[in-house]
Amino acid sequence: MRFGPVVLLGALFLAASGARAADVAAVDRSIDPCDNFYQFACKPWIAANPLPADQSRWTRFDALSIRVRDQLHGLLEDAVAHPAPDSAKVADYYASCMDEAGIEKADSIPLKDEFDRIAALQDKNGLPALAAGLQEIGVEALFDFSSGPDDHDPDRDIAILSAGGLGLPDRDYYVKDDAKSVELRNKYRAHVAKMLTLLGDAPPTADNEAQAILDFETELAKHSLTRVQRRDPKAVYHPLTRTALAEAAPGFAWTDYFAKAGTPPFDMLNVAEPAFATEVAALVTATPLDTIKTYLRWQLVHRSAPFLPAAFVNEDFAFFGRTLQGKEQIEPRWRRCVVATDAALGEALGKLYVARYFPDSSREQVKHLIGDVRAAYSKDISALPWMGAETRKRALQKLDAIVEKIGHPDKWRDYSSLEIVRGAPLANDFRAAAFETRRELAKIGKPADRLEWHMTPPTVNAYYSPKENNINFPAGILQLPFFDPTRDEAANLGGLGAVAGHEMTHGFDDHGRQFAANGALSDWWTEDDANKFKDRAHCIVDQYSAITAIDEVHVNGELTLGENTADNGGLRLALMALAARGLDKQVVDGFDGRQRFFIAFAQLWCGSIRPEGARLRAQTDPHSPAFARVNATVSNMPEFAEAFHCKAGAKMIHTPACRVW
């Protein structure tokens, strides 16, 4: 699970002022921290940093994302201006993306070959191979097909077939019947029609096609699991033989599909959602061929929009940026191209980034900080009053087995077989997507690589992998406001320490706890301890479900349970590490160590969000809103109440206090 959403949102960066402690000067002392700690720690910053027109959300966490984009921008401009063998591919990819004049001149011609393949489809027998070819270049066609560690044998990669094929962000957008959902579907249908008219379809034809596409995607959505349902790993693990898949989902030539996908030989795959696979085959059988071809044309242009002329880019932004997220204007071209380059050639660009911005000395200091948090977790598990001896022993074994990956891979990805041609932006992106697809599918049946990274080094994020049982901290997040080698240790622990504890706790949240020390899906809990865990987790579900995200929309306590558990557990572990270092009583700038620790944690999330963005995130994001990540978390900690001298009945004291770890 990821620590926080990877979003490209800018703000005044905390390091800009040379701050080396929690920004205690920015707190609003007129607000009682026991009444609203988020506002106490954040109100002045929020007032001084209004939402930019091209952003949907604006927090100090996101400020670092923008700073990293600026750093990458400089690296890429240097690479273009000063050609060198180690940066040639990223330079050519980025320069091609930036060539707006060339893109306008080419119009939609770069899509011609793919459109011709779709048009040439004469019957449904050829659809499986066509779908595999489109998926290879990153098009959402019917379903998702990939690879990953086998849940029951995580040392081996297995083929994985799962739900997909949608244009809207989530299946609920298609099935909810409230007024807002209906309004968004109508706007989505209009957007699809507009994109088809840009391809040359007559408006009346495009309108009919858009309705057919919406109907088709709605059928896919109806048979997809909800995000909450997918949180249960047992609900998405259904190993089947290829023969059993063909029997369960007749009418789709799976053998032809796998042949075109170019996989190694395999017999067994995980069909994550069997009912969805059955529906895809049935839907293909029942749907007119022309409708399927129109759907594929839409998914192709939708996927390709960032690399097409301005009319396509602007229409894509009008719906997915303005309507869904509330953004007033699109981000500058260079920033979008930086993001695209990172997505396509992340480790090639990341290698340049690490060389300039992430010294080995920082890696060692981060490793020491994470070690302190791990020691706190060991102490916490050893002292838990509700956990029995058998489960406790296995929990400690799992904690000891967690592997830390810090900053960047030790072995960089080899892109030598990927062709990047200056002046061919969309073709470059297709080839980059195909390179990644082939790399992923080639793993099927092979030993799993536990050292592989699933985020690029410049990413401002972190994650825990349950099947690999490792925690991962890219170089991008290992700087202010999370961490700085010269900063006050209390602030570093309130920042990166809380992140480290968060990721470790994911190994023991409602999802992660179902995987053993070796990463296998295994029930290693006694029944009594499992029930006690569920009771404690239910407290967190109820607490967060009572929080209003926006208007009539509440936080989904079940969807956010894992992240909320990790926020609560991670902050507590980091505080234990602070006490172990003997820094909790140390006074700096009028605040003791615990107070600076809590302020540093809260200030990670200072910011604002547009109503549209808040609504979107409440429906799709497994993380709670920023204010809730602060206030709800500290309200469960008696240590916070003690640090800020909160009296009984204060708003920042939740009754009952929810605690799992």
List the helices and strands and how they pair.
Layout: H1 37-48, E1 57-59, H2 60-81, H3 88-98, H4 100-106, H5 112-119, H6 127-136, E2 143-150, E3 153-163, H7 172-175, H8 179-198, H9 203-222, H10 227-230, E4 239-241, H11 242-248, H12 254-261, E5 268-271, H13 274-286, H14 289-304, H15 310-325, H16 333-344, H17 346-357, H18 360-383, H19 389-401, E6 403-407, H20 425-441, E7 463-465, E8 470-474, H21 489-506, H22 527-545, E9 548-550, E10 553-554, H23 561-580, H24 593-603, E11 607-609, H25 611-620, H26 626-634, H27 638-643
Parallel strand pairs: 3-5, 6-8
Antiparallel strand pairs: 1-11, 2-3, 4-5, 7-8, 9-10
Notable characteristics:
globular, alpha+beta, disordered N terminus, Neutral endopeptidase, domain 2, Collagenase (Catalytic Domain), 3-stranded mixed β-sheet
Structural account:
- The protein has 661 residues and is α+β, with helices and mostly antiparallel strands.
- Among the domains are: 110-308, Neutral endopeptidase , domain2 (Neutral endopeptidase, domain 2, Orthogonal Bundle), CATH 1.10.1380.10; 359-409 and 457-514 and 530-661, Collagenase (Catalytic Domain).
- It is built from 27 helices and eleven strands.
- It has helices spanning 37-48, 60-81, 88-98, 100-106, 112-119, 127-136, 172-175, 179-198, 203-222, 227-230, 242-248, 254-261, 274-286, 289-304, 310-325, 333-344, 346-357, 360-383, 389-401, 425-441, 489-506, 527-545, 561-580, 593-603, 611-620, 626-634, 638-643; strands at 57-59, 143-150, 153-163, 239-241, 268-271, 403-407, 463-465, 470-474, 548-550, 553-554, 607-609.
- The protein has a four-stranded mixed β-sheet with strand order 2-3-5-4. It has a three-stranded mixed β-sheet with strand order 6-8-7, with helices on one face.
- β9 (548-550) and β10 (553-554) form a beta hairpin.
- The radius of gyration is 25 Å and the shape is globular.
- The two termini are 17 Å apart.
